[in-house]
Amino acid sequence: MTSATTMPFALAAEHRERLMRIAREVSFGAGTRLFEEGRRADRFWIVRTGTVALDLHVPGRRAPVIESLGQGELVGWSWHFPPYVWQLGAEAMTTVRAYEFDAVAVRAMCADDPGFGRAIAVWVGRVLAHRLHAARTRLLDLYGPYGGDGRP
């Protein structure tokens, strides 16, 4: 797990401060589903404490965990791209405290200020690229013919 506070794609201080003005503090108990794949993506979170698991629906199997997210990390990116539908699921693995953001409000802020909008788009895009790589790696580990080490 890599913290967004140390990732090179964390938001610049000025944009982070602006985003935090509309943050709402929330908490989730262990085992709480934050969202389900295929449902409407209308909010997102930044983890303050605890761990959130991202999972992927696989018909006939238990949803594999793609990545675990912790302090400072963005939970949810589907809110940023039409049709605003979750591409993964998420569950609190421990008690989670997080900042919650209303997606419609953030998209409006992005539309009103192109500089802010670009910063958010780059941030979310980099998180998305990281998550896709993590998902690919995890799925190869789970379902590849030779497992994760590349040996028969």
Write a brief structural summary.
It comes from Streptomyces albiflavescens. This is Cyclic nucleotide-binding domain-containing protein. The protein has helices at 13-20, 103-112, 114-143, and strands spanning 24-28, 33-35, 43-49, 52-55, 65-69, 74-75, 89-92, 96-102.
Low-confidence region ranges: 1-8
CATH topology, by name, is Jelly Rolls
How big is the Rg? 16 Å
- Bin the helical content: 25-40%
* Percent range for β-strand residues: 15-25%
> If strands are numbered along the chain, what order do they take across the biggest sheet?
1-8-3-6
| Main beta sheet strand tally, sense and closure | 4 strands, antiparallel
Structural class: alpha+beta
Mean pLDDT: 87
| Helix/strand order, N-terminal first | HEEEEEEEEHH
CATH superfamily: Jelly Rolls
Q: What is the overall number of helices?
A: 3
CATH class: Mainly Beta
> What is the CATH-assigned architecture?
Sandwich
Distance between the termini: 28 Å
Q: How many domains?
A: 1
Structural notes for this entry:
This protein has one domain: Jelly Rolls (Sandwich). It is 32% helix and 24% strand. It contains three helices and eight strands; from the N terminus they run αββββββββαα. The strands form two sheets. A four-stranded antiparallel sheet has the order 1-8-3-6. Strands 2-7-4-5 form a four-stranded antiparallel sheet. The two termini are 28 Å apart. The N terminus is likely disordered.
